[in-house]
Amino acid sequence: MAAMFSLLQVLLLVLALQHSAVATNCKERERHALLELKKGFKDPSKRLFSWEGQDNCCMWEGVQCDNKTGNVIGLDLRNTVSYYQEVGDLYIISSRLEGAGFKGTIPSCLGNLSSLQTLDLSNNGVYQYEPSHQWLSHLTSLQHLVVSGVTFSSNSSTSLLLALNKLPSLVEISLSDCMLESIPLFIPILNFSSLSILDLSENNINSSMPGWFFNLSILEYLDLTSNDFHGRVSHNLVNMTSLKSLNLGVNDFSEDAIPESIGSLCNLDTLDLSRWNISKRFAEFGGVFSGCLRNSLTHLHLSSASLKGIIPDWIGDIKNLQVLDLSNNFLYGSVPSSLARLSSLQEMILVSNELNGTVPEDIGKLSELVNLNLGENHLNVVLSETHFTKLEKLEILFLSYNPLVFNVSSHWNPPFILKTLRISSCSLGTQFPTWLQTQHELHALDMSDVGIADTAPIWFWNLTTKLFSLDLSHNQIEGSIPKTSSFRDSFSIDLSSNRFSGTLPEFGSITRILDLSNNTFSGHIPASIGERMPDMFYLSASMNKLSGRVPSSLCQMKGMGAVDLSKNQLSGELPDCWLNSSALQILDFSNNNVIGGIPESICDMPSLTSLHLSNNNLSGEFPVSLKKCSGLTALDLSHNSFTGSIPTWIGESLSSLDILSLKSNIFLDHIPPEISQLTSLQILDLSSNNLSGPLPRTLGNFSVMQVPQKIGKGLRNVQDYKESLLLILKGREDEYNIKLLSLLKVIDFSGNHLSGDIPEDLTSLYGLQALNLSGNYLEGEIPNKLGRLQQLETLDLSRNELTGSIPWSFSNLSFLNHLNVSYNHLTGRVPSGNQMNTFTDPSIYIGNDLCGFPLGVECAKDGERNREGPSEEEDDEEDDVMLWWYIGSTSGFAVGFWSVWGVLIFKKSWRYGWFYYTNIVCGMIYVAVVLSFARIKKKMMMLMIFRGREG
Ligand SMILES: *[C@@H]1O[C@H](CO)[C@@H](O)[C@H](O)[C@H]1NC(C)=O
Ligand SMILES: *[C@@H]1O[C@H](CO)[C@@H](O)[C@H](O)[C@H]1NC(C)=O
Ligand SMILES: *[C@@H]1O[C@H](CO)[C@@H](O)[C@H](O)[C@H]1NC(C)=O
Ligand SMILES: *[C@@H]1O[C@H](CO)[C@@H](O)[C@H](O)[C@H]1NC(C)=O
Ligand SMILES: *[C@@H]1O[C@H](CO)[C@@H](O)[C@H](O)[C@H]1NC(C)=O
């Protein structure tokens, strides 16, 4: 309630200030003080334009004067850092830094505004509070000090609070998100006699809870959320009898039980202990909630508190509860039927627990319920119409990721009009749900993977008018999308992995994410796509039947992060209009029929990291224009008709490459030794070309390949883009996706005319997992040390002119599962022991003069050699694939995210907000589904600092 109050207050204040154009003249010294203040603003925003000249300063924007005395009593210089739009459970947050912010020290003449009652400097950049500047102490009338989102110098916070303590009229102190690090533990003479609101949330205060808090006997609202407060919360809490809202979540308070004394705070309506690592059975806290708190509490937030056990029945006795947030704990069992007694309940947020019991039909009686969130549990139940009987106010229904069956009749007329429906991976039946037709207010719909195998009815496309986010992916939905369908407000549209057909419809101009992959859309990509959807960030139409040219308007989508049009039937030349203002990271036109060369302008795009053009009809020489692509990490030109030699500048100019595939082209001449300057390479595939000459002696320089660790660096990952590459690993060509690719370290030079011997240098690539040198003219002996490449899984030396014997060290290759040395001139005994004994197919040795197992050719006695090869120390490193995947995907995200889209500083309290779905879009917009409604208004005041594209 108090939180609402303060918001309302701010709102009223703004209104008041905007309409306070009163003809009173302001005091000269106050006007002077304001002008001094203005000087501190780096780049005075529009608002401060009115602050000049001899004008009556009471008329200046943001200035409120007392209409009798003419004294300045209110100063509102708030900056809107971000604004959010609430649609269902979706929050769109956009950066909108209006003013440029204050920097430096607040001029001490601000103290001349001695009648000031309200000072709001929120979100105004860096502010240095100098204790020596006594201006604060002159503001003796100050009641409301709101400086949230202003960065204070780290050493000023204690002195600031001590100075505030001297102001007798202070009612509200809002110092949220000010990067405060400390707080006075002891205040000799505590004043704060009027203080009713104390907001210190979103700071870095590393302290125990100071004792003087407990003497703030009229304090109603205390917010310490998201700090580093630690230790126990004193039982003196009972002294804070006026407290209505107590917010202690996201701190490091000791894991002890919730202080029992909370139970006797008879005015408390809001209790937020989210992210307390309580680690106890929830049922053990019955004592706390049996006091008079049981009657007063309306909002209970215990998200991410490591709560265990079942949801106790006594929750149903907190009879005025409106918001119950138990998300992200370890609660199992049923949704207790006692919850159905909470007749005021508006939000039941039980997402992400281990609930595995039943859901009582009685919850259908909770007629005030707005948000029912049972997602991400193990609820193996059938929900029927009865569960929703009286839920007339329901706006948000979240059931995703439960093995539940949503069993309603197809003619059901639900009592609610939803704004958000998330039912992903539940079982909805094969028919398209008819009852959805009544849900004409939908903003967010996630019906992915629900088993629908039906044609999308024509009325469905009428529902898309207000849809902000649509996910129908992974069903078997058929039909075409009517041309007239309106995705007017759609930000994110995912229709991937269905059976949609027909031509591409028009999507709305604000579309940021469009995934149409794995359908059967046909026809051309609309030529005007770039003009119509200029802010698109991710476009995938891969795996369809699209034909025609790649439209040049794509170049105009400056915020685009990834374009994936692979696996279509696109033809013609690629457009050559790419701009240096583009943020594009990934371009994938592989598996089409495009012709011509690589567009000159492609490397004008400074962020380009991944270029996939394989399997087309591209031709010409290795383009000189790629010299500029210094940020490129993956280049796949395989299966085209490129020719000429591999340029020597490749090593210097493309030094970031970790994937280079030039396979199946007509590249000529020798492999330039400079290629070994590509020290980040993990995959080097030059197979099936016309390369000749010796292998460079410097191949051992690929430093990433030198280390056996499988944890490679994070590879590209923009939205849902799935990078892939065709590789021949186990004797056949397969498509490897990014997760596997980043695990791999591969050299493939097969199918060329390479000659000379296998350089010893190669044997220092200890991380190498696949080495394919087959189908060349390599001669000499197989280096004995090749057996040191402990990670080798694939080794193909077949169809060369190699002589000598197979080194005994091969028996040390404990991961080797594909070996081929056929058609050389090898002699002697096939090594045996360990892994070598598993190769029972004689064809891998055929075409040589070998003997022993499995050839069935006995070796001459004198040719026999010591059966024990040189033993090498074993690297008992675990194949921790999962760990790698985890790190890989996370860092991949980070790379894509930080490198282009700038720096987004997350508030710590978002840690307990729930991110079901995140997208970074167009460098400016961030969308989160915050499944917890916990104090969402405050949470949205999120600081976004964007480096911008030039950063
Ligand atoms: C001053 O403003 C207050 C509140 O807006 C109003 O009630 C009062 O009548 C005003 N007084 C004069 C003298 O205008
Ligand atoms: C209230 O606080 C005072 C000291 O500030 C303490 O002596 C007293 O015991 C507290 N009251 C309770 C009931 O804890
Ligand atoms: C639910 O989970 C708990 C804890 O894992 C287990 O003891 C119980 O048997 C499960 N109940 C059902 C119905 O599966
Ligand atoms: C869809 O909306 C259009 C225009 O609003 C309307 O004319 C049409 O009848 C609607 N179609 C269906 C099937 O509801
Ligand atoms: C393509 O969609 C179908 C049907 O939903 C699905 O079974 C298949 O796995 C998808 N393929 C890929 C590569 O995603």
From TrEMBL:
<dbReference type="InterPro" id="IPR001611">
    <property type="entry name" value="Leu-rich_rpt"/>
</dbReference>
<dbReference type="InterPro" id="IPR013210">
    <property type="entry name" value="LRR_N_plant-typ"/>
</dbReference>
<keyword id="KW-1003">Cell membrane</keyword>
<keyword id="KW-0325">Glycoprotein</keyword>
<keyword id="KW-0812">Transmembrane</keyword>
<protein>
    <submittedName>
        <fullName>Receptor-like protein EIX2</fullName>
    </submittedName>
</protein>
<feature type="transmembrane region" description="Helical">
    <location>
        <begin position="883"/>
        <end position="906"/>
    </location>
</feature>
<dbReference type="Pfam" id="PF00560">
    <property type="entry name" value="LRR_1"/>
</dbReference>
<dbReference type="InterPro" id="IPR032675">
    <property type="entry name" value="LRR_dom_sf"/>
</dbReference>
<dbReference type="InterPro" id="IPR003591">
    <property type="entry name" value="Leu-rich_rpt_typical-subtyp"/>
</dbReference>
<dbReference type="Pfam" id="PF08263">
    <property type="entry name" value="LRRNT_2"/>
</dbReference>
<feature type="signal peptide">
    <location>
        <begin position="1"/>
        <end position="23"/>
    </location>
</feature>
<keyword id="KW-0472">Membrane</keyword>
<dbReference type="InterPro" id="IPR046956">
    <property type="entry name" value="RLP23-like"/>
</dbReference>
<keyword id="KW-0433">Leucine-rich repeat</keyword>
<keyword id="KW-1133">Transmembrane helix</keyword>
<keyword id="KW-0732">Signal</keyword>
<dbReference type="GO" id="GO:0005886">
    <property type="term" value="C:plasma membrane"/>
</dbReference>
<feature type="transmembrane region" description="Helical">
    <location>
        <begin position="913"/>
        <end position="934"/>
    </location>
</feature>
<feature type="domain" description="Leucine-rich repeat-containing N-terminal plant-type">
    <location>
        <begin position="29"/>
        <end position="66"/>
    </location>
</feature>
<comment type="similarity">
    <text>Belongs to the RLP family.</text>
</comment>
<keyword id="KW-0677">Repeat</keyword>
<dbReference type="Pfam" id="PF13855">
    <property type="entry name" value="LRR_8"/>
</dbReference>
